[in-house]
Specification:
The structure holds 2 protein chains of 2 kinds.
Chain A (H helix, E strand, L loop, with lengths): L17 H32 L16 H30 L6 E8 L2 E6 L4 E3 L1 E5 L4 E7 L4 E5 L4 E5 L5 E5 L5 E7 L11 E7 L1 H10 L6 H12 L3 H4 L18 E3 L5 E3 L2 H9 L22 H13 L9 H6 L34
Parallel strand pairs in A: 1-5, 4-10
Antiparallel strand pairs in A: 1-2, 2-3, 5-8, 6-7, 6-9, 9-10, 11-12
Chain B lengths: L1 H4 E2 L20 H5 L4 H29 L10 H36 L8 H24 L12 H5 L4 H28 L12 H33 L12 H35 L6 H14 L15 H29 L8 H24 L1 H7 L3 H31 L5 H28 L13 H31 L55 E2 L9
Antiparallel strand pairs in B: 1-2
Helix pairs in contact in B: 3-4, 3-5, 3-16, 4-7, 4-8, 4-9, 4-14, 5-7, 7-8, 8-9, 8-10, 9-10, 9-11, 9-12, 9-14, 10-11, 11-12, 12-14, 12-15, 14-15, 15-16
Chain lengths: 359, 565
């Protein structure tokens, strides 16, 4: 344990978010000190000035003052609105995913983090990343709720079973930082964590080459697709379709369903279609796909999603209509890109699908 | 009426009334089958004290474990049960019933000039439901306990935990009905049982605060009951409601849970605010500043309190647009709390402030609630909450609100009305000393946790990285000071019952109706229904408090049975 990683009252500032969160914190600390000193100071003065001098004396009675009430309602209201706006701005930066960067897949389970890089390297309870690059995590869990939290980056997101959530950050400083699970997950909750190692690019490249790269998630997904699960018999060896829907170029794009709904084919939709194929069937196809529930692990699901992503889909900026047409959509999948089909720590609706608002 | 109230007390020694609610019957059944709201309040006082002590023992064990970074005192499974039991006992069986069921029960009828609550039998039923729920939960804890955290988050609670989730949940479910019935009883009583002349705007603010609290109890608690029932249905019947493996949605549970549990915070703190309004006005001997603003701010808090639950879920996977709305409304709900703090402060202005023990608690409350409230703004700001949620910052924040706020108000109220409830005075020295120790111990325990939280220390951690140890040592040291402070009242208050001086009907010469009957009051509260001709916190001539000649020395004549004899 190296104590020098922490300065006394703050964790280190090691991501692009850190200064924003710290600035907002400083603003709130200043407001808190101001009001505490004001109220406690005034009470202290009154405490001495107006102490009881004659037992049971009746002081001058004062009813109140509407003017004062207005002042001390409006001022706190205005201040709290500035806090709201500040909080929303800082949050927005964290919630809106960047359009490019390095992808990492995370699967939580009681009580470890299983992490796989897009290049195939696997890690447990450790995450090695290069400094100065945007990193995007696609996360899910095999069992209960967890939360992927890195205090030095001032960000975290719950990891929820049955759906994907996302987290991104850009580390700004080389170092070793705590990784915690911050959503209570049972017996060994406090043991579910480790370290994030932020490295110079060349050190990171060394680290990558020093580790046996397994199949990349996309390759492993293709292996499952073609050989192990037999998806290819309906969806075609290259995913071009057949009895089953084509999977080429669909990722991140709105798809028309039999029900008439339009759903964006994001990670959660693909996951749902594997586990519960009857839930939302693409227009023009029969409900003939069997469920793979119980036959695929969360790790394999992540690999299948990675494979389907690799078959192409929405390029950045190529979906202006969908992005523009759904400003109020709760699940902002449409603002994504080739890599990042979904945005925010917000997952999708409970069943993993996201009703579009196209029609 | 005026002459009736003013007498010259020739013998200045307070007397203990010969006949009162306490000695009106000595059999066990005269207590266990009583319909007297005052006796039921005493039953609650005894039972919530037991649970406060049990919850406190769990807290002590938690702090001992956290003295060192390694998990070396208890196993992690045991630790998880410690914080779960601490939370469940303190929240459901101490904080929620404490002020309403003890002080509210005792005082609301007296303060409005009624003989009892509207439904005395239902009031007794409430206590039995509380005891049934508490016994059920206690039985579950003794059998092996529960390790889900008091929040019972799914799917851990429905699928993964091997502990007594169902029994504990049912205990809380039963206890909820006690809360609902108490709330209902208060609402009906305040509407229908006020004495002649006791208009809504002559009600003490303690009564207004309880009215607002009762609204939350009646409207919020059923949602908790439904949520717990659904949890049991999923756990027993494997029906997919919350567990995604069964087709459910874990976030749905969080919405339902916080829909009750955020307003529940106001069930805990609103009555405390009511107590503090009484303390500040009465011990400054002034009409409270901005009466109507304080009264309506209670109602505003109760209403807005229902609309902010999503601020517990900014990092949970909830829609960010919903998050924006919840964050905004959370900021709005800060305003009525701020109004109260400023009005209390303004009440002191040009007052005649006496520093009896209850007033010390009142002033401590303002300071601690201020910090608790301000740190709530940190957690309502979305971008900051993402960093702070599920850290010790949250733990520190809600302890400032619930212990610094609700518990200190409860103790302040207990000391304020103790002479009325039992007719005896406690030791001024020991009670002041205990209040100071509690204040210092409390701050030493919980202030360091704000810093720990910003540094990133997660809550519910059995073991933690070494760099967090320094602040944990402060916190544990503070907890032992706090424990000493909290144990003292047990001794000097009990002692006062045996050896305490008779308090007299109105030891602080105050105008409220509760001070115009004997201490302790007779079973009927008043010999004849009082007619109210004075405003709330009326210290002037109209109050009938003062002798014309000496102007500040006379006693209030009690409106009670015994002066006739």
């Amino acid at each position: 344990m190296n104590n020098s990683w922490y300065i006394p009252l703050f964790p280190e500032q090691a991501s692009t978010f850190a200064w924003q969160v710290d600035a907002l914190y400083a603003y709130l600390v200043a407001i808190s000190i101001f009001f505490t000193v004001l109220v406690v100071g005034v009470i202290a003065v009154f405490f001495v000035q107006y102490r009881e001098r004659v037992k049971f004396a009746i002081p001058e009675q004062i009813e109140g003052s509407t003017m004062l009430e207005a002042i001390w309602s409006i001022i706190p209201f205005v201040i709290s609105i500035t806090i709201f706006v500040g909080g929303a701005i800082v949050y927005y930066d964290q919630y809106r995913l960047p359009t490019e960067g390095m992808e990492v897949y995370v699967v939580g389970k009681q009580w470890m983090w299983k992490i796989q890089h897009a290049t195939g390297q696997r890690e447990i309870n450790e995450l090695h990343i290069p400094v100065g690059q945007k990193i995007k995590l696609t996360m899910t869990t095999e069992d209960v709720l967890h939360d992927f939290s890195i205090p030095a980056f001032r960000t975290k997101a719950d990891v929820v079973p049955g759906r994907y959530t996302y987290l991104w950050f850009e580390p700004t400083q080389v170092g070793k930082y705590h990784l915690f699970c911050q959503e209570y997950c049972g017996l060994n909750h406090s043991g579910m964590g480790g370290y994030v190692y932020v490295m110079e690019q060349k050190d990171f490249d060394n680290w990558l080459s020093g580790n046996t790269a397994n199949q990349t998630p996309a390759e492993a997904g293709k292996d499952l697709f073609v050989n192990k699960l037999g998806c290819a018999s309906c969806h075609g060896a290259e995913g071009k379709g057949g009895r089953g829907a084509t999977l080429v170029g669909i990722f991140g794009k709105p798809q028309k369903m039999v029900s008439g709904q339009t759903i964006v084919a994001d990670e959660s939709y693909i996951r749902e279609s594997i586990l519960n194929p009857q839930a939302n069937i693409v227009e023009g196809y029969q409900p003939i796909m069997p469920t793979f529930k119980g036959q695929v692990t969360e790790d394999q699901l992540v690999q299948l999603v990675a494979y389907i992503k690799s078959l192409g889909g929405t390029a950045a900026g190529s979906t202006p209509t969908s992005a523009g047409s759904s400003p109020t959509q709760t699940s902002p999948n449409t603002q994504g890109s080739k890599n990042f089909g979904n945005a925010g720590s917000n997952g999708a609706s409970p069943n993993g699908s996201t009703p579009g608002r196209m029609n | 009426m005026q002459e009736n109230l003013v007498i010259n007390n020739t013998q200045n020694l307070p007397v203990y009334p010969k006949l009162n609610y306490l000695n009106n019957g000595h059999t066990v059944s005269s207590w266990l089958l009583t319909k007297d709201h005052k006796r039921i309040a005493i039953l609650y006082l005894l039972s919530v004290s037991v649970f406060f002590m049990l919850g406190g023992i769990y807290a002590g064990l938690i702090r001992l474990e956290l003295l060192t970074p390694k998990g070396d005192l208890v196993e992690s499974g045991t630790y998880n049960k410690l914080f779960t039991h601490h939370g469940i006992l303190m929240i459901f069986f101490f904080l929620i019933p404490s002020i309403p069921a003890v002080l509210g029960n005792f005082l609301i009828p007296i303060m409005i000039g009624a003989k009892d609550l509207a439904f005395p039998r239902i009031n007794l039923l409430s206590w039995y439901l509380y005891i049934a729920g508490a016994s059920f939960t206690l039985w579950a804890l003794i059998q092996g306990g529960v390790d889900t955290g008091w929040t019972f988050y799914t799917p851990y609670s429905t699928t993964f935990s091997n502990t007594y989730v169902i029994a504990t949940g049912l205990g809380i479910f039963i206890n909820g009905f006690s809360s609902i019935l108490t709330g209902l009883n208060f609402i009906v009583t305040i509407h229908t049982m006020r004495a002649p002349g006791m208009t809504w705007f002559r009600l003490p603010l303690f009564v207004w605060a309880h009215y607002a609290t009762s609204l939350v109890m009646v409207l919020g608690t059923p949602v908790l009951a439904i949520t717990l029932l659904l949890l049991v249905v999923e756990r027993v019947g494997r029906v997919g409601i919350f567990d995604p493996a069964l087709g459910g949605d874990p976030i749905l549970f969080q919405h339902l849970f916080w829909f009750y549990s955020h307003p529940a915070v106001y069930i805990m703190v609103l009555p405390g605010m009511g107590v503090v309004s009484e303390l500040i006005a009465n011990f400054s001997r002034k009409r409270i500043f901005g009466y109507t603003f304080i009264a309506f701010s209670s109602i505003a808090i109760a209403v807005f309190g229902f609309l902010v639950w999503g601020h517990h879920m900014f990092a949970s996977g909830q829609s960010p647009y919903a998050g924006l709305v919840f964050s905004f409304l959370s900021m709005v709900v800060a305003v009525p709390s701020a109004i109260k703090v400023f009005n209390w402060t303004a009440t002191l202005y040009k007052g005649s402030i006496s520093y009896d023990t209850p007033m010390l608690y009142g002033l401590f409350f303002i300071g601690l609630f201020l910090i608790g409230g301000l740190t709530g703004l940190f957690l309502g700001a979305m971008g900051l909450d993402v960093h702070l949620t599920d850290t010790y910052f949250v733990v520190a924040h809600f302890h400032y609100v619930m212990v610094g706020g609700a518990v200190l108000a409860y103790l302040g109220g207990l000391h304020y009305w103790w002479p009325k409830m039992f007719g005896r005075m406690y030791s001024e020295f020991w009670s002041k000393l205990s209040a100071m120790i509690i204040f210092i111990g409390f701050n030493l325990t919980f202030f360091p946790q704000f810093i720990l939280g910003y540094m990133g220390m997660p809550r519910r951690y059995h073991a933690y990285p070494e760099e967090f140890q320094v602040f944990n040592i402060f916190s544990t040291a503070g907890a032992s000071v706090l424990a000493v402070g909290l144990f003292l009242p047990l001794f000097y208050l009990t002692y006062s019952l045996i050896r305490g001086k008779a308090a007299g009907d109105n030891p602080w010469l105050l105008p409220g109706l509760e001070w115009r009957t004997t201490s302790p009051p007779p079973t009927e509260n008043f010999i004849e229904t009082p007619i109210v001709t004075w405003e709330a916190y009326e210290f002037g001539e109209e109050s009938g408090l003062y002798d014309e000649e000496t102007h500040h020395k006379s006693e209030v004549k009690p409106v009670s049975l015994f002066d006739q004899n």
